[in-house]
Amino acid sequence: MINEMKDLLPVGSIVLLKGGVKKTVIIGVLQVSEENPEEMYDYIGVPYPEGYLGEDNAYLFQQENINDVIFRGYENPEREEMLKLFDIVLESAREQLK
After folding, report:
1. Read out DSSP for the chain?
2. Of 11, 39, 53, 56, whose CA is between 20 and 30 Å from 92?
3. Are 85 and 93 within 8 A, CB to CB?
């Protein structure tokens, strides 16, 4: 999992995953799966250029699974505020685990 929220790629970023041949577009950050709700994933993505084709084609993955960033998504002040909130939540969770 990512250590610093500022390192999260923005939604809309296009990446190539390690061992992959098909590009993936990030459609969400900090996701959990129904099958494993105690584990948080950095990203959820779908094939590019097709996009969302159903839940069977959405992939949860971590920052370390990314081989190459093809395109970095849109960033603005709203995103910066969201990342600040994520930092607060992450710090609170770390404090509770101590």
Report:
1. --S-GGGSPPTT-EEEETT-SSEEEEEEEEEE-SS-TT-EEEEEEEETTT----GGG-EEE-GGGEEEEEE-----HHHHHHHHHHHHHHHHHHHHH-
2. 11
3. no
17-55 pLDDT per residue, tens = 999 999 999 999 999 888 888 888 999 999 999 999 998
CB 55 within 8 A of CB 44: no
Q: What is the pLDDT of residues 49-98, one digit of tens each?
A: 999 999 899 999 999 999 999 999 999 999 999 999 988 887 777 777 66
Q: Residue 94 and residue 33: Cα distance in Å, rounded?
A: 21
- For residue 90, what are its two tokens? 């992450």
Rounded CA-CA distance 51/40 in Å is 22
